[in-house]
Amino acid sequence: MKREEARKKAEALVAQMTLEEKASQLRYDAPAIRRLGIPAYNWWNEGLHGVARAGQATVFPQAIGVGATFDEELVGEIADVIATEGRAKYNAYSAQEDRDIYKGLTFWSPNVNIFRDPRWGRGHETYGEDPYLTSRLGVAFVKGLQGDGETMKAAACAKHFAVHSGPEGIRHEFNAEATPKDMGETYLPAFRALVEEAGVEAVMGAYNRTNGEPCCGSPTLQKKLRGEWGFQGHFVSDCWAIRDFHEHHMVTSSAKESAALAINNGCDLNCGNTYLHILNAYKSGLVTEETITESAVRLFTTRYMLGLFDGSEYDAIPYEEVESKEHLALAKKAALESVVLLKNDGVLPLKKDKLKTVGVIGPNANSRVALVGNYHGTASRYVTIQEGLQDYLGDDVRVLTTPGCELFRDRTENLAFAGDRLSEAKIVAAHSDVVILCVGLDETLEGEEGDTGNSYASGDKPDLLLPQVQRDLMEAVASTGTPTVLCVMTGSDVDLGYATEHFGAILQVWYPGAQGGSAVAELLFGDVSPSGKLPVTFYESLDELPDFEDYSMQGRTYRYMSGKAQYPFGYGLTYGDVCVKSAEIAADNGKSSAADCASDACAAPVHMNITVENAGSVPTEEVIQIYVKCLDSEFAPKNPSLAAFRRVRVEAGETKTLTLEIPRQALTVVDEAGCRKVDGRKFVFYAGCSQPDARSCELTGHTTAEVCYEL
User: Residues near 382 by Cβ (< 8 Å), separated by ≥ 6?
Assistant: First the structure.
């Protein structure tokens, strides 16, 4: 149903309501209005990497792992599966008149905040640090989730608007200060793309203030959203964020004032209970009935677009779609594409017929929690790395196991001495031909403030170090001299300096989903070549970064850093040997005027023909990446920026040519006033399987192809 038709129906329905009934519909747990035939509806649902918190569902890799795939098509397929399973569950639940939380069709996903600092605990909910990559994957997710049917398959939500990426511990009172340039260049582009390109149905406001205004009651942000970008959907607060107005931000003095500030600045739906005071605000003259009516109309427009009153072509989706064989296969494919091979001295891929005993060591080796990240559903079966290897090797190869240590506590048994499993780890390593050492974090050590009661600072990381017990474990295993493959299960950058020096191979596994263990086994033994790329920078240390509370982009991420990365954004090895042999602007590429380039939706992208070769003996998928640097504008980012990418399969010994489309916006810059424009005329495009930085070239052994371009 088109928005215009849905809105007319919503207006007619809301017109029959009393003021009290309208106000009641602005809560996330909207009650039934039985005299009008309106059932209760709970707006709160999550679908970050699978339908979450509502029982059985396909559990895909955490969002940061999905970011590492650099695969727009895959992201769209994942989102479509989430919508399918969401519909299947909604159909079954609503038939039982079960309209509880996490059982609706309005999913508060994706999270398109920029992972600007590796300390942020919720960074693994995002697609990484780059606004272009985040925009492309976010658009694909929204389109896949919402579908292109007569009715909307499910409603997506862009969160958290805006300039939100920690610290978690003070998010309820924090004021994130960002310059207009950083806003326009880094923090807002993904939100804009989701609104203008994907038609995202909802936007969620953040907890913090941005430049002094609380995000869920910000006239400046609403001017961008509904004014400049033309957003037509509904706006929802983060949960209990409106209460923060008077309890923490201190911009109002009472709940009714907070409710008024929020709704008068475009917040239609309250996740929380502050809108229970809307009527008091109305009686005090702080809110008009017209404002309340408009928010109710927006919300019922969404419900009509979902077909919740007139029926939908998706009403027949059966419950059997939940965690189907096809959906599980897609989850495994996503896990295979997400893993990033950071180092390989030749130990990988392993050869099954060359091994008698494999040691599987580490606190995350057999951890289900480390598979799933946060905001996850419940899988019917979880395959840990230990179980994946046991399934893969069967009875042919002996598997010895030990956790080696706890995740962060200094002993595994309360009555034991500290380090009680280190000797066992040495024994297992000494009796093994190769060790698979599984270290890292999980959602109890990096996550959302208050979400898991973790031992660290409100979900954020204090530094880049793994817990001391895991560092001790790595040293113990290294001391045995047994060839070791390190599998790192984290949602963010951790210091891998010691591992790089002492272990033959390193796999960044992220939180790979319920099928993760099966995928890792196939990657380790070469059934599939690793092909993921880092969506974040792995820094040498935090010393080069600004304070966590500083939202300036100077010195942050690959676009503005000055130092040498430990492992750079866009980097990842394969078992093949793919490089770009040549790149050139397509002969039929049209030139556009500067005025065309200044438009965010300008036509005439730049087309580049790229020839790639796999000089290796192993077929692999690769991610071809194009970066751009403007040479003659003072407003250009310090380093080349990602402008296009494509995942491609290249057979062993194969040479192939492909054409990539570079959006014309890549030739624009953002000035200090936050205006995007053409300011320079001379550009260099870099085409390769990584960034053009010296560290990536050092690690891959390949340089990128350079193409000069002039407007």
Answer: 368, 371, 372, 514, 517
